[in-house]
Design goal:
two-stranded antiparallel sheet, 2 helices, about 55% helix
């Protein structure tokens, strides 16, 4: 349970810095309640996304080539 002070702090950070709330872990109680551990995350920049996609494509091609030689 978050206190009002903590909620206000999260809200300010979301608006000012452009952060996103992300669920990190989820716990289910015996009574059916869920507890979620949350964190703040910053999104990737456009150039970061392109670089990430390039790396994934290169890894995929290397794995494909390795399978052919085995």
């Amino acid at each position: 349970m978050l206190q009002r002070k903590e909620l206000n702090k999260l809200q300010r950070q979301l608006q000012d810095r452009g952060l996103t709330v992300v669920g990190l872990r989820m716990f289910l109680s015996e009574r059916g309640f869920a507890k979620i551990v949350i964190g703040l995350a910053r999104g990737r920049k456009a150039y970061d996304k392109r670089e990430y996609l390039k790396e994934n494509d290169a890894k995929r091609e290397m794995d494909k080539a390795m399978k052919q030689f085995k």
